[in-house]
Specification:
The complex is a heterotrimer of chains A (365), B (280) and C (300). With 280 residues, chain B is an all-alpha fold. Chain B has 14 helices and no strands. In chain B, helix 4 packs antiparallel against helix 13 and helix 11 packs antiparallel against helix 14. Chain B is globular and about 75 Å long. The two termini of chain B are 27 Å apart. The relative contact order of chain B is 0.13. With 300 residues, chain C is mainly α. Chain C has a two-stranded antiparallel sheet with strand order 1-2. In chain C, a hairpin with a 4-residue loop joins strand 1 and strand 2. The N terminus of chain C is likely disordered. Classes of the chains: A alpha+beta (365), B mainly alpha (280), C mainly alpha (300). Chains B and C meet through helix 1, helix 4, helix 5, helix 6 and helix 9 of B and helix 1, helix 3, helix 4, helix 5 and helix 6 of C.
Chain lengths: 365, 280, 300
């Protein structure tokens, strides 16, 4: 079972505070969509509106072409996994899973079969007669997913379901969720503020910020061609380097921009936007270290973060700007070493004053 | 902690210990005294008050209660009144607590504040008017006459509202997504989770009703409608005369025993209930 | 349920207002209005009328209140009530605090003693007064017996006008001690343990720990206990009625007993209603103080 979900011009406010503004989005069946954004961006509210837990102030929500925004939550054919799991504490695992089915008078043998299936798939068969209080965090998480699975919903809604797990369990559960999606082929909507969860799980990511959608796209599209400066800064670790642009003129590849008096970078961005450009963004992996004098700018290593497979060099340029660059894990360089930075301008992004991004031709995936 | 009894050695600790022991004796002595008296023959007591300290001890006074006293009728009345009021309070408070904590309806917040004001109204302020209303309705000397005023107490509503508010809202939402109706969410999901509060409120209400003296005294004027508390009080008027001290004390012990046993079993809940009621 | 939709209105969420939701509070509200709100206002109305059990007579304006404040017995009962509150409340608070400090330990002895000091609170006023009348009764009483051991005669607590109220107060303190102790105990248990560890590292003596850490932490509880007890003890009735009948010479007659006498023994409901409004105002003042203190959480 799978559903197309269509959101049309939806707005929402709590009291006088607007949380969503005229937002539209269309999710095809089978898709795993992640709503990604900082806290307070409205992503959870949007999810809860789809679930029917928040009223829709203005606009429409359709599932499979049918308007559902006036239906009570139970009749929308969606299942939700809550951040806190919201398991019924006084019911056993089995009762937690059957409660919803009993409410709509599903036949007893059907209920049993579905619970057995879900329990096998999620490996919680041995927990069925326990109460949530007797389970570990990871087990509760599985039961919460199981409670959603037995309903065979048109769409699964996940509200930051991994945030209460420890790091190792979170990684494992992430993989299992991906497998679950492949197996069930249901539409899934997943809300998170964790970009790694978004990148690894999503067919498409919806990046939200400040009541609006910033960008909708496949994970690598979001990473390689962020639509706005916000998306560029929010997605990717370490955060993209941003340098203020002081001058721009046509160069060898495209637009050549000056970031300060001594640093100029040749980008692949088409030169016709020269007038609007306000800042340049470049990820650490597009910046490498070289011997002093052999790059576009010289500086001193301020902090060296050793990550094992690679190191991140935080370099203070002679004009005071900070840039993070990629360096090998085995580097002999240390804090205080004098280095030069080489910028791969083809991978640079330019942004105008309003944050709109311009990308070079080569940066396309 | 700072001044527990356990690590006693210093002079200060000895003073504290002595004071606590003295207070314990003051607490205990009157009760033990009464129990001892209840096992003494009336005539022997009259002749020599000090006879309480030595045998013979007899149970004749208790046998007399079983044989003659109206105590059993009063116990029955007290049970009917206390259970009726407890059940009524639990039902009304749970429904209203859920309504105020979870459901939205026009005027809800103002209404809740008005109910909270009800907490500050003492019984004496409404007593005279209540009495007149019940006279007109011919409710005096009936069970409903004794029970009904207690149902207007705002304390249970306040307690249950607070308790419902403390339950995570996601549980309601999960149940709504599970197609449960409003009433089913209340009945199957939330109500079972309020059991500790139900126990606290139930015991508090029961104890209050069982021990209430003022309203039953005013409303129940016929001997056969007395509650135990009122009935016991009515026998005290002919103190130490016709029936004798031993007999009276046996009645006191007999009347106090059930509640004391309940106290021993539900001590934890009773303490929570009583202190919780006071802090509100 | 929420599926019913007004035309062209934004859709209903599960948390939107709905009249039907009020059905959950309606049963309670019925009793609240008929047995509390309505009698409250009717009581005020009655206090301006001459009334008996079934009917209310003519409007008398402030006549009942004038009669009330010209009635020496009423004025005496107000004085008696304040005297009683003064006798009981500070004693209850101080002994309760002492016991809480002494018994705030996880030992078995402390647990047993806490139960001992609380058990009297579950008894009814009838049993309490029965016990204490036997304590005070001449010749057979516990007090008389104890005095007898030393060859002395116990003072006639219940019949001596100077001692009668003290006797009522003693019985009351014995009866009500459990609550303040438990309130203080729960406040003490809410003081985080690491404060004490920090104080120990700061070389604080036990006395200093008590005065500089423990007592300041329960200041608010102390104020609450005082006010709760004032409200409770203002409503003195059973002990006075059962131990002394308000006598001798009305010296133990509190306001509530005056109301009971006036309204339900002399059937002067108007005057009784007026007296109960006076009591209501006094208690309301104390309740407002309690509200203010529980509001001022942060400052204290």
């Amino acid at each position: 079972m799978s559903a197309e979900i269509e959101i049309r011009n939806v707005s929402k406010s709590f009291g006088s505070a607007k949380v969503l503004e005229n937002l539209s989005l269309s999710i095809p069946g089978h898709e795993f969509v992640v709503f990604l954004g900082p806290s307070g961006c409205g992503k959870s509210t949007l999810l809860r509106m789809i679930a029917g837990l928040e009223s829709v102030e203005d606009g429409e929500i359709l599932i499979n072409g049918e308007r559902i925004d006036h239906l009570p939550p139970g009749q929308r054919g969606v299942a939700m996994v809550f951040q806190s799991y919201a398991l019924y504490p006084h019911m056993t695992v089995r009762q937690n899973m059957t409660f919803g089915l009993e409410n709509i008078n599903v036949a007893k043998d059907v209920i049993d079969a579905r619970v057995a299936d879900a329990a096998r798939m999620l490996e919680i068969g041995h927990l069925l007669d326990r109460k949530p209080g007797q389970l570990s965090g990871g087990q509760r998480q599985r039961v919460a997913i199981g409670r959603a699975v037995v309903k065979e919903p048109n769409a699964f809604l996940f509200d930051e379901p991994l945030s209460n797990l420890d790091a190792a369990l979170r990684t494992r559960t992430r993989i299992e969720l991906a497998q679950l999606h492949q197996r069930l082929r249901s539409t899934m909507i997943f809300v998170t503020h964790d970009q790694i969860e978004a990148m690894t799980l999503a067919d498409r990511i919806v990046v939200m910020n400040n009541k609006k959608i910033e960008q909708i796209g496949a994970p690598m599209e979001i990473y390689d061609r962020p639509a706005t400066r916000f998306v560029a800064g929010f997605v990717g670790t370490p955060q993209m380097n941003f340098l203020d642009v002081t001058a721009a003129r046509p160069g060898a590849l495209g637009l050549s921009v000056a970031c300060g008096p001594k640093l100029s970078i040749d980008t692949a961005v088409a030169p016709d936007v020269a007038g609007e450009v306000a800042s340049l963004g470049i990820r650490a992996e597009a910046v490498s270290l070289a011997a002093p004098g052999e790059g576009q700018a010289d500086g001193v290593i301020d902090v060296l973060e050793r990550l094992g497979d690679r190191s991140l060099a935080h370099v203070r340029l002679d004009d005071g700007q900070m840039v993070v660059a990629n360096e090998s894990g085995q580097t002999r360089l240390g804090v205080g070493a004098r280095v030069a930075l080489r910028f791969d301008g083809t991978k640079a992004h330019l942004f105008d004053g309003a944050g709109k991004a311009y990308h070079g031709r080569e940066a396309a995936p | 902690m700072s001044s527990g009894l356990s690590n006693s050695r210093s002079f200060g600790d000895r003073v504290i210990l002595a004071l606590v022991i003295a207070l314990s004796i003051v607490m205990l002595a009157p009760a033990l005294w009464v129990i001892a008296l209840s096992f003494k023959d009336n005539a022997e007591l009259m002749a020599n008050p000090n006879s309480v300290f030595h045998p013979p001890y007899i149970i004749q006074n208790y046998i007399n209660i079983v044989g003659t006293s109206a105590v059993f009728r009063w116990i029955l009345n007290s049970l009917i009144v206390s259970i009726g009021l407890t059940v009524g309070t639990l039902v009304l408070s749970s429904l209203a607590g859920y309504g105020f904590a979870r459901l939205n309806f026009p005027g809800r917040d103002i209404l809740f504040v008005v109910v909270l004001f009800g907490l500050a109204v003492p019984e004496q302020a409404v007593l005279v008017a209540r009495h007149q209303i019940f006279s007109i309705l011919k409710f005096h000397n009936t069970y409903q006459g004794i029970i009904l005023p207690g149902l207007s107490s705002a304390f249970g509503v306040f307690l249950m509202t607070q308790y419902f508010r403390a339950i995570p809202k996601e549980l309601d939402e999960a149940a709504m997504l599970d197609n449960a109706s409003r009433f089913r969410v209340f009945w199957k999901v939330l109500l079972p989770l309020t059991l500790p509060a139900q126990a606290t409120l139930g015991i508090f209400t029961f104890l209050g009703a069982w021990n209430d003296y003022f309203w039953p005294l005013i409303s129940a004027t016929k001997k056969e409608m007395f509650t135990l508390t009122v009935g016991m009080a009515s026998t005290q008027t002919n103190f130490a005369q016709s029936e004798g001290i031993g007999y009276l004390m046996a009645q006191a012990v007999f009347a106090g025993a059930p509640i004391f046993i309940v106290y021993l079993f539900f001590q934890k809940y009773i303490v929570t209930a009583v202190s919780g009621a006071a802090v509100r | 349920m929420t599926a019913v939709q007004a035309p062209r209105k934004p859709s209903h969420g599960p948390h939107s207002p709905d009249w039907k939701n009020a059905l959950f509070v309606a049963p309670y509200l019925f009793f609240f209005v008929t047995l509390l709100v309505f009698p409250l206002f009717w009581g005020i109305w009655l206090s301006f009328h001459k009334a008996d059990t079934f009917s209310s007579g003519p409007f008398v304006g402030f006549g009942n209140y004038v009669r009330l404040f010209n009635d020496k017995v009423f004025l005496q009962s107000v004085g008696n009530t304040f005297y009683f509150v003064l006798l009981t409340v500070p004693t209850l608070a101080l002994i309760g605090l002492f016991l809480a400090l002494a018994l705030n330990a996880r030992t078995r002895t402390a647990t047993v003693l806490r139960s001992l000091f609380f058990f009297s609170s579950v008894l009814s006023v009838t049993i309490v007064t029965l016990i204490w009348r036997i304590v005070f009764i001449p010749q057979f009483g516990l007090l008389a017996t104890v005095y007898g051991w030393f060859g002395a005669t116990a003072p006639a607590f219940v019949s001596d006008p100077n001692l009668a109220m003290i006797a009522v107060a003693m019985a009351t303190i014995w009866w009500c001690l459990g609550l303040p102790m438990m309130l203080f105990l729960s406040a003490l248990q809410q003081i985080p343990g690491d404060i004490y560890e920090a104080a120990a590292l700061d070389n604080a003596s036990r006395w200093r720990t008590l005065t500089a850490i423990t007592l300041p932490s329960i200041k608010r509880t102390f104020a609450l206990v005082i006010i709760i007890q004032i409200v409770l003890q203002f409503q003195l009735f059973g002990q006075a009625w059962l131990m002394t009948r308000g006598g001798p010479n009305n010296v133990t007659k509190p306001i509530v007993l005056y109301i009971y006498d006036t309204a339900f023994r002399r059937w002067d409901l108007g005057l009784g209603a007026a007296a109960s409004e006076v009591l209501f105002v006094l208690i309301l003042l104390a309740a407002m103080a309690q509200y203010l203190i529980s509001r001022r959480k942060e400052d204290l």
